[in-house]
């Protein structure tokens, strides 16, 4: 009886009258769900993070960046936390998502290297334009689009990791080292959908990466 009454309440919440229910020949659970749940506009960045085959922590970091939720110094300042606003990567300009990922020469060189590795040759723009371009590119369901999403997530993760290493540990790596680490990680994911395209791209053996890290 409780289930019957609960179903009656759900139909009433969905806007159905008793007369309409009596005349109803079929019922779509999907339509009922959408009516009760409500319709929401799909966010553009969903193509970048949903079904992204890269490491979960990469996707999480990319999601934070898409939402502008990374704890950059300019954001901390808005919260009333006063500190040195200089970017730890360049010690010249103030730190922000815009500067950290797509303005500073270090990040631009790294992103350019990763794009070229995928066979994408284009100019690098600011954060907003670059994100819009990435969202449009990720709409494609091809293997190239899947690879691009993984590389973008790895790029965001490692740039943020490098930022923290320089800020809290006084350690640094050059963009060539980071690009090889990202490429190595992408190869290690063993994703079937991008396997063929990865076989045509350069591969950096783990020994080379370890040697570079030890050397630095």
Give the SSE map:
Blueprint: H1 2-13, H2 18-23, H3 29-37, H4 46-49, H5 56-66, H6 73-78, H7 97-102, H8 105-117, H9 127-138, H10 143-168, H11 175-188, H12 195-199, H13 206-215
The radius of gyration is 23 Å
Largest sheet: none
Give the N-terminus to C-terminus distance in angstroms.
Answer: 71 Å
Q: State the helical fraction.
A: 55-70%
Oligomer kind: single chain
Query: What class do helices, strands and sheet pairing give?
Result: mainly alpha
Tally of helical segments: 13
Question: Beta fraction of the residues?
Answer: under 5%
- Number of beta strands: 0
Average pLDDT value?
81
Q: Tell me the overall shape.
A: elongated
Low-confidence stretches: 205-216
Order of helical and strand elements: HHHHHHHHHHHHH
Task: Describe the fold and architecture.
The chain is an all-alpha fold and 216 residues long. 62% of the residues lie in helices and 0% in strands. α8 runs antiparallel to α10. The longest helix is centred in the last third of the chain and has 26 residues. The N and C termini lie far apart (71 Å).
Quick rundown:
62% of the residues lie in helices and 0% in strands.
Primary descriptors:
216 residues; single chain; mainly alpha
């Amino acid at each position: 009886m409780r289930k019957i009454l609960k179903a009656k309440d759900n139909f009433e919440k969905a806007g159905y009258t008793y007369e309409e229910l009596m005349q109803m020949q079929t019922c779509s659970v999907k339509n009922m769900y959408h009516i009760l749940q409500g319709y929401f506009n799909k966010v553009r960045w969903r193509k970048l993070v949903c079904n992204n085959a890269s490491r979960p922590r990469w996707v999480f970091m990319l999601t934070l960046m898409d939402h502008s939720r990374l704890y950059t110094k300019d954001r901390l300042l808005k919260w009333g936390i006063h500190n040195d606003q200089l970017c730890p990567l360049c010690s010249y300009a103030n730190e922000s998502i815009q500067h950290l990922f797509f303005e500073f020469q270090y990040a631009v060189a790294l992103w350019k290297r990763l794009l070229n590795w995928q066979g994408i040759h284009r100019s690098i723009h600011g954060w907003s334009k670059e994100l819009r371009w990435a969202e449009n590119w990720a709409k494609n369901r091809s293997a190239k689009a899947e690879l691009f999403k993984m590389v973008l997530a790895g790029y965001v993760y490692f740039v943020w990791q490098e930022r923290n290493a320089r800020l809290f540990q006084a350690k640094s790596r050059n963009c060539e080292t980071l690009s090889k680490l990202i490429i190595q990680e992408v190869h290690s994911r063993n994703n079937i959908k991008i396997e063929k395209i990865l076989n045509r791209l350069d591969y950096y053996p783990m020994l080379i990466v370890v040697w570079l890290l030890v050397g630095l």
